[in-house]
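pipeline stage [seq->struct] | target=HD domain-containing protein | organism=Linnemannia schmuckeri | residues=229
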Amino acid sequence: MSLTATFRKEAEDLVKEQMAAYDPSHDWLHVDRVRRQALKIAKEESSNGKTIDIELVELAALFHDIGDAKFHKEGQPTGREIVMTFLAKHNYAKADIVAKIVENVSFRKELAGIKNEWAESCIELHIVQDADKLDAIGAFGIMRCAAYSGYKNRPLYDPAEKAQLNMTYEQYQAQTKANTGCAISHFHEKLFRLKDMMKTPSAIRMAQKRHDVMVAFVEQIEEEYSMDE
């Protein structure tokens, strides 16, 4: 089954409205890249014999950043509430699964380490997670990291800042709340970890090149700062 043109446009309009309040690292263009990447992964995995609900992948990818914890304010509806309200209006039968994927996509949720059988087995969730991670690394990942650091008024590079390697969920939450850290530390704390967190064979294959781009970039930053050129 595929989404009707009207349904897809209304879903896109909802996402554009929601993302308008976010910074350029989490805008509509990011969401559209994640959707396209998720559909690419789904197509490749399907061709390798896996049974995948393409419609579910597209909707979950479209809605994956609605209600993002980094931007959510007390009193606002949650991502689940927004998604369920929209899908209920369209009598969409798998609304709860879409909302469940949206709730579980983030790196933050994975870092918390809460295991459940559904999350471990849902291929559609894995595809959207991988697509989101792929857009967080490589060239776009570099630009997004700089954009979000600017939005949060964090330094791009502070030689006195020591990255928290193997950052725990508690450390991640504390850093977010305190708005500390710098852009280059974020590569060591999160972005360099994403390559090894990919779940689908397609994403695992795609991630290495993007990872290498980031490693070269950070090495260049270090070289330029040291003035050893």
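stage status: PASS
auto-comment: The CA atoms of residues 64 and 102 lie 5 Å apart. The chain has one domain: 5-226.
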